[in-house]
Amino acid sequence: MDRFVFLFAAGLARGAVLALFALSLVIVWRTARVVNFAQAAMAAAAVYAAFAVTAATGSYWAGLLTGLAAGALLGAAAERGLMRRLPAHAPLPGIIVAIGLVMVLQAGLAIAFGPEHRPMRPPFSERPFIIGGVPVLSPNDLFTLAAAAAVMAALALLFNRTSLGLQLRAAAFAPETARLLGVRVPRMVTLGWALSVAAASLAALLLVPTELGLNPHAVDLLFVNAFAVAVIGGLDSPAGALLAGIGVGLLVSLVTGYVSASAAPLAVLALMTLVLLVRPGGLLAPKEARTA
Amino acid sequence: MSTPLRALIITVLAIGGTFGLDPFRNYQLATAAACFAAVAGLTVLVGLTGQLSLGHAVLMAAGGYGFAYAASAVEGPWPLALAAGLAAAAAVSGLLGLLLGAAAARLRGPYLAGLTLALVIALPAAVNTLPLGGDQGARAPFFPVPEALSALIAVEQWHAWLAIAVAAVAVTPLVMLRAGRAGLRMRAVLDDETASRLSGVDPGVVKAGAFAASAVPAGLGGAVLAIATQQVTPGGYGLAFSLLLVVAAVAGGLGSIGGAAIGSVLVTVLPWFIDELVAAAPAEFGQRLDGNLAVLLFGAGLIALTTAWPGGAARLLDRLRAARPLRFATPSTTTER
């Protein structure tokens, strides 16, 4: 039972990070109708920027802000420089260009910083609180949970309660009509990309210090799990990303604890395949229009 | 000229060409032949049905494991072991391809790409969980040069011969499939699923069948790699290798078999060539460039090709060929919707 409580608590923190990264995939899917396969490489580049600033100034928070800004800039640059030039309504070129971007970014990072794992210190202690003799969340886990929850709440407010959010949604759902009504659609798409990659960078910044360390491939597994989360919840659904993120986080934590660490990716793969076969649009997806 | 005859001529020419290469080049040729089989399957899948698989390396690995275990289990003369291994490679990869195809039939663009990506990432976990020898991988039997030929050729050249022959057996049916009724159905499904369904072509069956048909050559390619290296390890079939297969298909021009050949030679030879150049750089910096510079250049090339020149190398061939009058109208391939 003690073990279950510990694994459950660890799974919550992991799930929050997963949900945040999955939400970033949902944002870019909703604004531009592409899945950004380069999200992991871009987030890794942002974490390297944060690492360099933290190393230079000694302040975790300066590094965190730099990482977020670098992520937003990278997202905007990728949209302006590459994605905008591709034919619309064809998923293939977007995916292939994103794969090219992954190769360029990861190889570039490995050349610039070397392939070794660089240790990053988490901002708070990782020693868990003991409640009733059971180790539960550490201060760092609490910070991760709070940061992820705050950013997700802020994004929900932005999209649902502000004029800018309304313009973002309008540009995504009805670009032609939105343009006629005076929304600057291309600017909104760029902003969507910037928000999305910044959110992904935050997720990576929260995750990397708790794992092996920083490496060009450090975010790959997070991306694959977050993609599974986004698919399970439905690529169109922010609420689905949140629920599925917590669910998959718990699943990974429990499978790692009770079976083995190497069985966790298989469990996620099996769950994703099952959901795709039963409900290809995801659990919380709206119904699709019928064809023939 | 009929397709099997043309395939036979190309195979004989390629086998003759091995006499002009040193052992290391022959080893590279065997690797390129393995890539060619997998890339040919991938390029038909992507170019004709629009299903992007990032997981063809896993299908190759499945073929490699199937070959290694089946060929090791057979006691007898070497052609029997080879045939058993190849049959097992085709069966294992075809079965996995059929499973993936059943899922693919219900999925579009990004979903399928993500599912296959997850498959590649889960491969090391799978070989550690299933009884497949873990990270050490499995040993494949060694096929020495037969007695009659041992005075004539080295072992690398013999393996190149086997590789060329297996690649020919893997790719020729694919070429015939692509040119025939099945290819027409794949193009119909790519162009308009509703219209093809109204014409009595079931998109689900066509997509699943295309995935299985593209998985078998990939599995045979994995068997070829197992012959050339005498082992199958999960590390050899990681994400980088899987993306390299996509690069080869795109560089050659999606949907083109000839382009697949050019692309696979490119992704085999260019990394080696760049690493040779990098070896001249100073030690520590050179170590960082090693392997990475090639990936960087391939990524940049992938972006440039997709944004500026989507036809790939096959388009160049077509343009050269267009200078001469064609006897047959070749079916046009659609690379994107």
UniProtKB/TrEMBL annotation, chain A:
GO terms for molecular function: transmembrane transporter activity. The keyword Repressor does not apply. It is found in: Cell membrane. One of its GO terms (cellular component) is plasma membrane. Keywords: Amino-acid transport, Cell membrane, Membrane, Transmembrane, Transmembrane helix, Transport. InterPro entries: ABC_transp_permease, BCAA_transport_permease. Pfam families: BPD_transp_2 (PF02653). The chain crosses the membrane at residues 6-27, 34-53, 59-78, 90-113, 142-159, 188-208, 266-285. PANTHER family: ABC TRANSPORTER PERMEASE PROTEIN (PTHR11795:SF450), BRANCHED-CHAIN AMINO ACID TRANSPORT SYSTEM PERMEASE PROTEIN LIVH (PTHR11795). This is Branched-chain amino acid ABC transporter permease.
TrEMBL record, chain B:
Coiled coil: none annotated. It is found in: Cell membrane. Keywords: Cell membrane, Membrane, Transmembrane, Transmembrane helix. It is a multi-pass membrane protein. One of its GO terms (molecular function) is branched-chain amino acid transmembrane transporter activity. InterPro entries: ABC_transp_permease, LivM-like. It comes from the Bacteria. GO terms for cellular component: plasma membrane. The chain crosses the membrane at residues 30-50, 57-74, 80-102, 109-127, 158-177, 243-274, 294-317. This is Branched-chain amino acid ABC transporter permease. It comes from Glycomyces albidus.
